[in-house]
Amino acid sequence: MRTVRLQGPLFHVTEDPDQVIGDFLGFALSLRNLSGRLTAEELHERFRPGGSGMRLPDVFAAYRARESDAVPPEFDGWEAEDLERRELWVLTRLRFGESSPSALVEGPELRHLLDRALALRGDGSEGLFL
Predict the structure, then answer these.
(1) pTM above the 0.85 mark?
(2) Which domain holds residue 75?
(3) 3-class SS letters over the chain
(4) Are 92 and 53 in contact (CB under 8 A)?
(5) Is residue 39 part of a domain?
(6) Is the residue at 129 inside a domain?
(7) Distance in angstroms (rounded) separating the CA atoms of residues 81 and 6
(8) Cβ(79)–Cβ(71) below 8 Å
(9) What highest taxon heads this organism's lineage (predicted)?
(10) What would the mean pLDDT of 23-47 be, rounded to a whole number?
(11) The pLDDT of residue 123
């Protein structure tokens, strides 16, 4: 399982060569600035197994892949049956006019990383997903 650490204002995640997961954590923990809701409450709602994920137009998308064509082509080989059994989330940093780097993270690990990021930010919400 990946680990997360906070360096200044940025999250760094092991096995995240393009910094997609780290950027996702930063954006996710900043949702409060857009919605006005408590961060932990909103994250729990958005990233539970049936959650809606997150879309920041022209910036970032995080969604659960439910069909094989929802998985970026660089991660080829996922069958619809696999996606029904496994909770796979696609994280994509959107870049206009360039390829958009993505990462795949299974649901339990995604929630673990969110929980750790909340704890590192010290808002008292750690353990929300456990």
Answers:
(1) yes
(2) 4-121
(3) CCCEEEECCEEEECCCCCCHHHHHHHHHHCCHHHHCCCHHHHHHHHCCCCCCCEEECCCEEEEEECCHHHCCHHHCCCCHHHHHHCCEEEEEECCCCCCCCEEEEEHHHHHHHHHHHHHHHCCCCCCCCC
(4) no
(5) yes
(6) no
(7) 36
(8) no
(9) Bacteria
(10) 89
(11) 64
